[in-house]
Amino acid sequence: MKVTAGADDPERCAQGFTVAATAVASGAQVSLWLTGEAAWFALPDRAANFNLAHAAPLNDLLEAVLAGGSVTLCSQCAQRRDISPTDVIDGIRIAGAASFVEEILEPQAQALVY
Questions:
Q1: Strand locations in 12-98, DSSP E?
Q2: Of 2, 16, 17, 101, which sits 20 to 30 A from 10 (CA to CA)?
Q3: Distance from the Cα of residue 19 to its chain's centroid
Q4: DSSP 8-class letter at 89
Q5: How far, in Å, CA of 16 to CA of 29, rounded?
Q6: Residue 105: pLDDT band by 50, 70, 90 thresholds?
Q7: How far is CA 85 from CA 45, 95, 99, in A?
Q8: pLDDT grade for 109, boundaries at 50, 70 and 90
Q9: What rounded mean pLDDT belongs to the chain?
Q10: Measuring CA to CA, how many Å separate 106 from each of 31, 100, 102, 103, 109?
Q11: Which domains does the chain have, with CATH numbers?
Q12: pLDDT digits (tens, 9 = 90+) for 71-97
């Protein structure tokens, strides 16, 4: 699953995180990719400071995905924002398009973009 929106489009952003966390809770294998403006949520406290009425706290959703799935920050998105591996939340990796393609080509994998 790929989340491309951040604070610039809060509803779309929250939908992506909600679907990812719900999938983890349902026992699905989840790989969440943070791209575009969602890249900022790889940094500590960014998700905690995100607010959207009638939505689960983004920080809780991110923690749920980290606990039961994987979270990856797009390498180009990280570079454009001067985010280094030492800046991101523990458990989030930085990887590029080849890794994304490899994951979606795995049997049973589905790519969803928000």
A1: 31-34, 70-74, 92-95
A2: 101
A3: 11
A4: P
A5: 15
A6: confident
A7: 16, 10, 16
A8: low
A9: 94
A10: 12, 10, 7, 5, 6
A11: 2-104 (3.40.1260.10)
A12: 999 999 999 999 999 999 999 999 998
Helix then strand then coil, in percent of the chain rounded to 5, is: 40, 15, 45
Amino acid at the residue 78:
A
- Beta bridge partner(s), residue 73: 34, 94
Percent of the chain with pLDDT over 70: 93
Token pair 């994951």 is found at 103
Cβ burial of 21 (10 Å; 0-12, 13-18, 19+) is: buried
Report residue 41 as tokens: 């949520």
Provide the residue type at 32 as one letter. L
pLDDT at residue 83, rounded to an integer: 98
What global pTM score does this model have?
0.90
Q: Which residue has the tokens 């998105």?
A: 77
